[in-house]
Design a protein that fits this description.
With 198 residues, the protein is an alpha+beta fold. It contains 7 helices and 11 strands. Helix 4 packs antiparallel against helix 5 and helix 4 packs across helix 6. This is Lipoprotein transmembrane.
Length: 198
């Protein structure tokens, strides 16, 4: 190959690489174990931004990918819990989970991040939410569970686009759910900073 042709080819490769590089971080941030989280979502007519996404693992097993959507990006737990508008937790199962397994993990995370007084106050809503787990056989690999906070309505859950369970009205309960992953004793210490935009 003559030198001028080699120079042209090297230049073309460099341009292609330079063009590709800016898109790599965005793709990496939104791709979790093969699950692609959209940059935006719409809840109750309001556009939300992907605040962060990450992987929940247990021992060596990939359990689910989780994304957190907010009206504006936030990097602190206090700011996320104080958000006034709609919010969304998107969970994509990476393995089959029984409703008991998922329900037990939910209760463990809830109990680890609430004190006794708050658990007592939220007990009726926790029971209502828990009935959702009893109403479904579990999550199959690839299932998508959305847990949305809609101001004036409450916590609404959908599984693969179908509403499941009853609506839970108290924002304190939704914040208790969020603290399962971003609280002081998160379900996965590697997942928490990713949800905070890290």
């Amino acid at each position: 190959m003559n030198p001028s042709r080699r120079l042209v080819l090297h230049g073309a490769c460099a341009l292609l690489l330079a063009a590709a590089l800016p898109s790599l971080p965005a793709f990496a941030a939104n791709d979790v174990a093969g699950v692609k989280f959209d940059d935006t979502a719409t809840v109750h007519g309001q556009p939300l931004k992907l605040n962060g996404a990450g992987l929940r693992t247990k021992v060596i097993f990939k359990v689910y990918a989780l994304g957190l959507y907010l009206p504006e990006k936030k990097t602190s737990v206090a700011d996320i819990l104080a958000v006034q508008g709609p919010r969304r937790i998107q969970i994509v199962s990476l393995r089959d989970l029984t409703s008991q397994d998922f329900g037990d993990a939910f209760m463990k995370g809830l109990n680890a991040n609430t004190d006794a007084a708050e658990r007592t106050r939220l007990l009726p809503q926790t029971k209502t939410f828990g009935e959702m787990f009893a109403a479904i056989p579990g999550l199959k690999k690839g299932d998508v569970l959305l847990v949305d906070w809609i101001p004036g309505t409450g916590t609404v859950c959908t599984l693969n686009g179908r509403k499941i369970g009853e609506t839970v009205p108290d924002v304190a309960f939704y914040n208790a759910i969020l603290r399962i992953w971003i609280g002081n004793d998160p379900a996965d210490t590697d997942l928490k900073p990713k949800l905070l935009g890290g």
